[in-house]
Amino acid sequence: MADPTERTDRFELIAACDADTLVGLADEVLDGETPVRILQEPKPQLLMHQVREPVERRPFNLGEVVVTAAEVTIAGERGFAMVAGKAESKAVSGAILDAAVAANHATADRICESLVDAEVDRDETRRRQWNESRATTVAFETMEDEDE
Amino acid sequence: MGYVAVKAGEEVIRRAEDLFEKRRVDGEDEPVSVEQVESQFSRLVGQVMSEGGLYAPKLAARAVKQAQGDAAEAAFLLRAYRSTLERYDDSLPSSPDAMFATRRVSPAYKDVPGGQILGATKDYTQRLLDFEFDESDPTDEWDLGDDEPESLRNVMEVLRDEGLVSDPDPVDDTDVTDTTREPVMFPAPRDAILQELARGETGAVTALAYSALRGYGQVHPTLGEVRVGSLPVEIEHPYTGESAEVTSVEVTESESVVPVYAKRDDPQFSFGYGLVFGRNERKAIGMTILDASIQLDGDEPAEDAEFVLDTVDGIDSFGFIEHLKLPHYVTFQSILDRIRAIRERKGLDPVDGGERTDGDGGGDTPSDREAPQAVSDDD
User: Fold this and answer.
1) Could you read off the pLDDT of B75-130 as tens digits, one per residue?
2) Which domain holds residue B198?
3) Which domain of life is it from (chain B) (predicted)?
4) pLDDT value at residue B366
């Protein structure tokens, strides 16, 4: 289980979380009293996805992925988020949450709980996908005796 | 001959565009939403992302809707959008072993570790037109297990255990060719070939690979495996320096195993690799055949890297083929003049009494000019 108090884990939890959850939590941080400074406006960018092919283990460029990154500061603590797709509000919300937890904002515990809850939901979805796939695993039957 | 610059009404062009847009909203049916395109036409969306070289499912679904289902046009729209964006960076190189596979079949190994997982496919049932779609979920009543997801061992590693695939020498990770930023020069490095094949047009990849199977080549592989799943995309976190997953992309992967007894002193195998965005098994398999064929560097079309890479890109071929329908008045006028000059110099009679149809009426006469020896149709 990822630890939302750890920066890298938190980055991954935010990146995988749905937009509604992130925007809702960021609205709570933006209470009118917490000064939030935008260091990097959220904007779609390209991330070239490199893959190591398995024969020569040589990396090559599979193609680019659209991502949106943003960076903010809250109480002197920086927050950075990168999310998939063209998703400006999700990215800036993620950066706000990252900084809010780093700054130990009043909402930090709630943010961490929500990020973990969202991960549990995703894990459940993935587990179901896996078990659906496993249900299509072939069980071969030998045909040696069928002629006898 | 005098060239006459002409222009035609922008209003007419706008009307033609309006008429095109009308086709999308015509009729009594509700317009299909971008979300519906993304969820219900996921294969088409995947193909468009693959051929556009850009993973962005929502934008690809929008492009499909805008292009009214024309995959090549939609891929073009994605490439055009891509050209407006800055590059953040390269991801850290993903290992295919990290794939969360929901389908994996191995035509080579019946008892492949992890089992033959068919996943979502209609490969083994009849392909018949369905006149009565059942909109309910047919898996609702399944009695599912509750196992933790596992990673499936790559077949290449199984072969490596048997000594049939050697451990490769370390490669330089920092010098990866990027064909979106530098032109492909021949002989092309393998990373450039894989990148170009990965964003090749599905039909072109399939056709060129098929040519090898039909005898115009030496590669008729056995597939080590075909996998469909999601592959993590990771960056180095700017604060911690640790690898961090940003997202995952749906991909199709295949490896082909090609015995090349006559080509090698040490009879092992040659391999072709295929990896593409989205669920597109024929393209991934075709890519393995082309990758393996190009490595042979033979005389057949599919073995010629320059031929394959020059023809496999859908945006290139679509653009060049379709540009022919745009006005070529001056080009054609020039060809007419040259043909007339040649005929006159050879003393041939004008065709059909020699009435000219170019309409510009002015300019020099054919006899005033030096006739070319060959007629070129270069634009």
Assistant:
1) 999 999 999 999 999 999 999 989 999 999 999 888 888 899 999 999 999 999 99
2) 96-119+150-320
3) Archaea
4) 44
ipTM of predicted assembly, 2 dp: 0.94
Q: Of B66, B86, B106, which residue constitutes the final position of a domain? A: B86
Q: Are residues A86 and B115, on separate chains, in Cβ contact within 8 Å?
A: no
To test the contact with chain A by mutation, choose from B78, B90, B227, B295 the residue with the greatest count of A C-beta atoms within 10 A, namely B90
Residues B219 and B348 reside in one and the same domain: no
Model pTM?
Answer: 0.90
Mean pLDDT of chain A, nearest integer: 94
Distance between CA atoms of residues A40 and B111, nearest Å: 52
Same domain, B221 and B112: yes
For residues B75 and B102, membership in a common domain is answered with: no
Does the beta-carbon distance from B90 to A48 stay under 8 Å? yes
Same domain, B162 and B186: yes
Gap from A71 CA to chain B (nearest CA, Å)? 11
Q: Are B4 and B360 in contact (CB under 8 A)?
A: yes
